[in-house]
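Table 4 source record.
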Amino acid sequence: MSTISAKVKKRADYQPADFTINKVNLQFELHATATRVVCITQIERQGSHHRPLVLDGESLELISVTINGVAQTDYKVEPDSLTVPTELDKFELRVENIINPQENSSLEGLYLSAGAFCTQCEAEGFRKITYFLDRPDVLAVYDVKIIADKTQFPFLLSNGNKVAAGDLPDNKHFVSWQDPFNKPCYLFALVAGDFDLLEDTFVTQSNREIALQLFVDKGMLDRGPHALESLKKAMRWDETEFGLEYDLDIYMVVAVDFFNMGAMENKGLNVFNSKFVLANSETATDEDYFNIEAVIGHEYFHNWTGNRVTCRDWFQLSLKEGLTVFRDQQFSADMGSPIVNRIKNVRVIREHQFAEDASA
């Protein structure tokens, strides 16, 4: 039994960060037990103070720290943080560290499961990838380069638009991704593995063609079309009802058995447990089809309510989730019967959220 006491956090104690991060450049050399992560960040001091830079970090093997290209030695490493003294107000920080995805049994940060790499960073998982200001009110643009064995990991996915790809020596290859929109680190995602791929396109109201990609476990391709059709319905509905057009050139969904959460709205790269996404007429009921449409819609609607407009701190989690649940309920009502959908929603409230109200 664990004897570690959780650190109490109170909403009234919230303070803005001493520093902010404007741009992030990440490079991953994927390895089962020794993934090398290089994180280069553009950092700016907030306000007038002389406090050191304190970054969150857990279960990391630190290799080096440099500021503006100069190696640092006076930093302090603790089990949950890295403290770097500096008098600079703006600077480039480079941190290199090693992580062990295979031994990451917390399934937060980057982990290896069923032969594939996957991340889960909400709420505070990014600190298990590299040292960072792991809080939702620090937003930055991300450039990501992933390097891995080409045979084992033909697909290397991350947030944003794919900007480069190529082969490297020793049967390795790389893919580079660029996300031009500011996001908190909890929305960062990386998936690498060998999957079956279902593709489609969606044309937005401004006549932009969006590539749609659904990655599934091998042999599950026939269970994916309903999810893609549901995604296109959600994209069109958000344009029609709210005027919200998708803002990247590609939208990716990964639906795999090994994902530990139900679903996660990472920017441009949603990750689902396959039971919430995959279905065909031999395995699914009408209720399954309805639920898949709803959850696909929910995670897509987060693109604006949760991703582009996000929470200040984790006490505001219910704001982004509540608003997005409202939007997915309105979507389900418009796709089916508003009355039946409302009855279902009220039953969930009575039977699960407020079970005592279901008594005699």
